[in-house]
Write a structure and sequence with these properties.
With 381 residues, this protein is an alpha/beta fold. The protein folds into three domains: 1-117 and 272-381, Isopropylmalate Dehydrogenase; 122-141 and 178-271, Rossmann fold, CATH 3.40.50; 143-176, no CATH class. The protein has 14 helices and twelve strands. It is globular. It binds 3-isopropylmalic acid and magnesium ion. Residues 91, 95-96, 262 line the site of 3-isopropylmalic acid.
């Protein structure tokens, strides 16, 4: 019997209720696939601040350290976040901290418009074309997010009319920085992902303007020589954002710098009908000792406090995130596929939460968070 220890960080807003469904689904897999989960719930975000004074309490970090993987819900409550200094806000103090602390450099965001959800996609059917099935691979621990210096400072300019002949402004500085090594490792992840899919990799950069982009393009091209079976193309980020809505079915794997990936993955998410459909995996290196690849798995949507606690949230992104955990951290491909197929079945049968509902749905199949979880369990083979 394989045993997996999972740190469960449900967090704020809809986090706890969508997490409940994901855990239910994982439990339902135990006997079917001969595995056992030890779920270690720990507080994060405002749940952490309220319980232990910090968005990422020490005990929570210790649970993550001791776990084989982290299943993450969502953190942050916009109204309350603004009351804290920016470094203590949940998104920075918990989520960005965890990504950097565990060096989770590879963020995989599979974007798929499921059968029966074309109505929820903002594109016309003619643009949806042969379908939308894209893996956004985002570099997650470098680039513009983490480069130093990163600060806001006073900046003095000469101004003859100002007091003392000068004027003091503020200026904000962020730094985009990336090394060959960082590009290489994320490029390898992307080529490997493409190999298991339609064997096409589109690397996104801004090589016409940024030094970062020139290096990115050179290194990705070099890494590509080891993957002659994968077709590689390069595209500027502005063009990529346009192509995504003009002709999304041309893309298979999209490889992006941290900030570009943040932006393009939200754009791609809209194409999948709802943020509530999008899982993500943030991966580090595989441990040589255990063979387990530590990762943090989270839905792409936020904490959605407006609908929290009402059994309205779509739990599918959280459930699909659990499937990604099975695949990437535990190598349990069959169990991961079983979850994904069950999700597909439930959608094909017409079960819908509000975010993916349409006027033509059977009213009886418009259901809440927990009913979707039940329906997915009932559809597991
Ligand atoms: C994401 C989110 C985060 C990011 C925020 C919450 C810090 O937008 O995971 O895409 O910018 O990376
Ligand atoms: Mg984002």
């Amino acid at each position: 019997m394989k045993k997996y220890r999972v740190a469960v960080l449900a967090g704020d807003g809809i986090g706890p209720e969508v997490m409940r469904e994901a855990l239910k689904v994982l439990r339902a897999l135990e006997s079917r696939f001969g595995m056992e989960f030890e779920f270690r719930q720990a507080a994060v975000g405002w749940a952490g601040i309220d319980a232990a004074g910090k968005a990422l309490p020490e005990e929570t970090l210790a649970e993550c350290d001791a776990a084989d993987a982290v299943l993450f819900g969502s953190v942050g409550l916009p109204g309350r976040d603004a009351t804290l200094p920016k470094d203590e806000r949940p998104e920075r103090a918990a989520l960005l901290y965890l990504r950097k602390h565990f060096e989770l450099f590879a963020n995989l965001r599979p974007v798929r418009l499921y059968p029966g959800l074309n109505h929820a996609c903002p594109l016309k059917d003619s643009r949806i074309g042969s379908g939308i099935d894209i893996m956004v691979v985002r570099e997650l621990t470098g680039g513009l997010y983490f480069g130093r210096p990163k600060k806001t400072e006073e900046y003095v300019v000469v101004d003859e009319e100002g007091p003392g002949g000068k004027r003091v402004l503020l200026r904000a500085i962020d730094t985009m920085v990336i090394t060959t090594e960082e590009i290489e490792r994320i490029a390898h992840v992307s080529f490997e992902a493409a190999r298991l899919r339609r064997k096409k990799l589109t690397s996104v950069d801004k090589a016409n303007v940024l030094e970062n982009g020139v290096l990115w393009r050179d290194v990705v091209t070099e890494v590509g020589k080891s993957y002659p079976d994968v077709e590689l193309e390069h595209v500027f980020v502005d063009n990529a954002s346009m192509q995504l809505i003009l002709n999304p079915s041309q893309y298979d794997v999209l490889l992006c710098e941290n900030m570009f990936g943040d932006i393009l993955s939200d754009e791609a998410a809209a194409l999948a009908g709802s943020l509530g459909m999008l899982p993500s995996a943030s991966l580090g290196e595989t441990s040589e000792e255990s063979g387990i690849r530590f990762g943090l798995y989270e839905p792409a949507g936020g904490s959605a406090p407006d609908i929290a606690g009402k059994n309205l949230a779509n739990p599918i992104a959280q459930i699909l995130s659990a499937a990604l955990m099975l695949r990437y951290s535990f190598g349990e491909e069959a169990a991961a596929r079983a979850v994904e197929l069950a999700v597909e079945k439930v959608l094909t049968q017409g079960w819908r939460t509000g975010d993916i509902a349409s006027a033509s749905d059977e009213p009886a199949k418009r259901v809440g968070t927990s009913q979707i979880g039940d329906a997915i369990i009932a559809s597991l083979d």
